[in-house]
Specification:
It contains one helix and ten strands; from the N terminus they run H-E-E-E-E-E-E-E-E-E-E. By secondary structure, it is an alpha+beta fold. It folds into two domains: about 30 residues; about 120 residues, Immunoglobulin-like, CATH 2.60.40. The longest helix is centred in the N-terminal third of the chain and has 30 residues. InterPro entries: CcO_II, CcO_II-like_C, CcO_II_C, Copper_CuA, Cupredoxin, Cyt_c_oxidase_su2, Cyt_c_oxidase_su2_TM_dom, Cyt_c_oxidase_su2_TM_sf. Belongs to the cytochrome c oxidase subunit 2 family.
Length: about 170
Amino acid sequence: LTNTSISDAQEMETVWTILPAIILVLIALPSLRILYMTDEVNDPSFTIKSIGHQWYWTYEYTDYGGLIFNSYMLPPLFLEPGDLRLLDVDNRVVLPVEAPVRMMITSQDVLHSWAVPTLGLKTDAIPGRLNQTTFTATRPGVYYGQCSEICGANHSFMPIVLELIP
């Protein structure tokens, strides 16, 4: 049995399939442009190179005479009252507030991940590759992060501390 009174509505199906796709493209194009523009900092005040090692970070202020220092987690015996266990370091990265900062991140040995969640930053540190992230902090304070990659037995002992001063 064949019902001949039902007609195909292929034109209508084509319209209600293609029209939402066109609307999505029209919404996406300006958003992608804005997303790209917010990620790019053309003239940063500071460029800091961060190199991941097992089990510490090396920081280099490249714009100011190549100031280089290592940042190790503070052992429990050296903690002062108010310090955070497993999160405080011996040498903090000190930066001014409201200054655009470019972080260049790499690794010397294995995969690491330079992550400071309160600033919305997470960038992988890959040996042989230089990744970049930019940020501008708006509030002074001390911001904590850690290596969030499973890079070995002691990966959780690679804290990151940024001290942002007015």
